[in-house]
Amino acid sequence: MAKRIEVKDLNLYYGKFHAVDGVSLTVPPRSVTAFIGPSGCGKSTVLRSLNRMHEVIPGARAEGCVLLDGEDIYGSSVDPVSVRRTIGMVFQRPNPFPTMSIRDNVVAGLKLAGEKDKRKLDEIAERALRGANLWTEVKDRLNRPGGGLSGGQQQRLCIARAIAVQPDVLLMDEPCSALDPISTLAIEDLIQELKKDYTIVIVTHNMQQAARVSDQTAFFNLAGVGQPGRLVEIDDTERIFSNPAQKATEDYISGRFG
Ligand SMILES: Nc1ncnc2c1ncn2[C@@H]1O[C@H](COP(=O)(O)OP(=O)(O)O)[C@@H](O)[C@H]1O
Ligand SMILES: [Mg+2]
């Protein structure tokens, strides 16, 4: 199996608290991987460790390996800022810069990186907005504030912003949990489009969503209160939802807990 991401024996801490224990998994290129499991089992923590956002939290640290195309993103010579450009992130609550124009929201990262050519920025903005299935809805109001869009449009704006810097991987932490059902379906359709170009890892508390959008599913669980979260199993989504190897997975997906 081709590997875009390979995680090896990853342990994640917040100060002395051991939040996630010994995760190993691989993510093939141009696929969607869903993280599911009960609240507090470490899904967001693992996701944030995949682009070195975890360590931004004071006291937080990671032990183990995260390889992107065979290179350890935690290597001593690696710049975390460039990691975050290659591995973009979309959050639970859409977080556009509310007073900044739609166009400038999309190209904010590029402007920050020093790109000044207006024509080039316009081209990139259009490409990213098309890629995020938002172009036709906003093309006549690119100079209006991003905060004026609906929640679902704001989330697609954030996806446009994430893809404008041409990442390889997109991490999404419950990207639909603040959205209505129609906007949720729009994002799910978009994820199917995006996986032609990107590798996607999505945390979702919605098992139907995991079943609908993902190729493989990772089930995380907690052994008990105060215990670290751990990966119970990862497999083809179809198999996880029809015939998982572990009883804990079956109990969770059949709604017996969580
Ligand atoms: N910023 C933080 N500081 C300290 N502990 C945290 C922080 N974020 C999460 N945790 C703890 O780490 C564990 C895993 O949390 P999280 O990754 O958010 O779980 P999930 O996303 O699966 O709900 C939980 O016990 C949570 O309380
Ligand atoms: Mg979470």
Automatic annotation (TrEMBL):
GO molecular function: ATP binding; ATP hydrolysis activity; phosphate transmembrane transporter activity
GO biological process: phosphate ion transmembrane transport
Signal among keywords: no
Subcellular location per the Swiss-Prot or TrEMBL entry: Cell inner membrane
InterPro entries: AAA+_ATPase, ABC_transporter-like_ATP-bd, ABC_transporter-like_CS, P-loop_NTPase, PstB-like
Domain ABC transporter per the UniProt entry, residue ranges: 5-247
Gene3D superfamilies associated with the record: P-loop containing nucleotide triphosphate hydrolases
Major subcellular site: membrane
Alphabetical list of SMART domains matching this protein: AAA (SM00382)
One protein family per Pfam: ABC_tran
PROSITE patterns: ABC_TRANSPORTER_1, ABC_TRANSPORTER_2
Membrane topology: Peripheral membrane protein
Keyword tRNA processing: no
Keyword annotations of the record: ATP-binding, Cell membrane, Membrane, Nucleotide-binding, Phosphate transport, Translocase, Transport
GO CC terms of this entry: plasma membrane
Role played: Part of the ABC transporter complex PstSACB involved in phosphate import. Responsible for energy coupling to the transport system.
Protein name: Phosphate import ATP-binding protein PstB
The organism of origin for this protein: Actinokineospora fastidiosa
Gene that this polypeptide is encoded by: pstB
